[in-house]
Structure formats: structure tokens, C-alpha cells
Design brief:
By secondary structure, the chain is of the alpha/beta class. The protein has 14 helices and eleven strands. It is globular. Helix content is 41%, strand content 11%.
Length: 346
Amino acid sequence: MIRALHFHDAAGTGARLVAEARDRGMGWDLLQQPAPALSAHAASPAEDPSSPGAVRGIAALRPAVLRQVELVSRPLRARVMGERLRRAAAPYDVLHVHGGHKAANARWARRPLAVHLHGSDIRLMQYAPSTADSVRRGVEAADLVVYATPDLPEHAQNIRHDVHYLPVPISSADLPAPPPDAEREGVLFVSRWEESKGGAAMLEIARILREKAPDIPLRGIDWGDGAAAAARLGVELIPRQEHAAFLRTVAGARVAIAQANAMIGTSELEALGLSLPLIGSFREDYYPGLRRLSATDPAAQAEAAIAAHRDAEGALREQGGAGYVAREHETGRVLERLVELYRTIV
């Protein structure tokens, strides 16, 4: 039996995989990364983080001095983190790091290393001057590289080509029971209002929906730099919630609107698992077996949302979302695939 230590987490992926493994008696664990040691609101690693005096001492430094302290401390913090990982990983067969930028220091662990690419780490951070080196070193150091969404190979292959798709895990046991169909209402935008999620197109969908179907309630998360614009269009903004509460909010909707790009994320997959029709512009070749319900332009998506709200059962039959999630993304299936990949490096 392979024992794995997961370091950090992203969108709950590490937590779900570790929980499933532990349910199967596999003895996996999740190690979360502590908050950065040096900032205007934190103590230095040499001080007691709980000491108010220590916090005040760092906070009193001028910003320019803080930047210098941060620069000088980076090699030390890297070595400290590497030593922490080495000690923590010693009893395990694999160290699995979530985030390419988190893995650069994992070489100190002296354990087979799996690096899990989740999105912005390889899609954006590898091109940013301040983070490019840490992403590259982390990915190069790995014995195994897996990625979470089907668009990422084109970015990962700038560094290496032996990367493996590991679907985002969704634990059906964690999903609440959907209410009766008659109690579900409204269209819910499940992603945050940011350009990385196709925020401008999401706002246009909301505008068209409000114009063409003013009787349909529109809801979305109060998150992202486009949230205020969504509110002005008549979208009811929901405060950010704990995950279980958010799932109950999703379950109460009748139709879900996905992020407006080629991928679907965890929230969209959870909506599918909760038997909501998902309106989006995702690429069908990325998700074989999941049917898109409209063309990709905002007008077509708005029309599809109105039609799905009118006949959610018909849209569900056409899309096949719940069955797709069970086949491709159920956490147990993803875990079994991951164990197979671990066997190639242990």
C-alpha cells in the first residue's frame, strides 16, 4: 500500500483525495502550508507568531525595509520549508505537492515527488517574472506531474512533456440531496466575476437574461472585480459561504451558468453532480460525454438558460451531466487513477 503526504490544497482537491484514501485505510495525510512568515501583519520565523509584540515589531517597519527583509529572508524561508517537508514526508512513500509554485522547495524532502498543476500556477505564474523560476524548478524537480484541467498541457509542455491528466475529484457523498424540482428556482452564476473566468461574457449573459426574462431570479457570488457590475444588472449577490452552505445554495437553483471559457471548474462540476443543467462555453472535446446546451456566444447561452429554466428535466436528459460526473470525476475513481500513477515512481 502506497502512503502519500499531500502538501497544500487547491479547490479542495487534496482534501477530497486524502479523505477518500483514509476511508479506504490507506493512511494518507494533508499538510497545509502556514501563512507567510514575513509581512506587515506577521512575525518573523524567529519570533513567537502569537506574540503581539512580535507582530507590532514587524508591522512598524517601513514598506521599503519590509521588502528588503523579505528578499533576504526568501532563501532562509525556502530552506526552512524544505526541512519541514523533509521531516513531514519521511514516513511516506510519495510527497504530492499541489501547485507548481509550491514545489520548488520539495526537493529537500528526498521522497518521490508528484506535482499537481491546478491552473493559474502553470497558466499564468510560469510567465510572471516574479514566479516563473519557482514554477519551472518545481515542475522540473517532479518525478510525476499531473494536471487538473484539459487546457493545461499546452502550458505545462513548455517545461516538460510527460504530464498526465487527473480529473478534478468530486465526492458525491458530500453533495446535499437536491430539493424537489418544484422548489428549485432561478439561474445561478457559479464562478466569480473575474476576467480569468470570462467575466465580461458572464456580465453580458446576465444583461440579456434580465432583458429577456425579467421574471427569472438571477443570483451570483459576491466575489471578483465584476461583482458590482453584476449587481447593477440585477443579479442578487450571495456573500461568500462555507463550502457546505455554498453547495446548498447551488442545489436550490434551477440552472447554473458556468465560467465563460473553454474549461469547467470544481463549482461547475458540483452543479452538474447536483443535477443542474449547466450553460457554458466549454469545449466538448475536453469533456467527452458531456453535451453543451448552446453555442458559445452570450446570446445563445442566455437563450439556453431560459429554455433550461422552463424545462430543466429535458435539459438534464440532453446534457447528461450527473452521469458524466459520476463516471469521470467521482473521487474514488480519480484516486484509483492517481494510485496507478504513483506506482510508476515508487
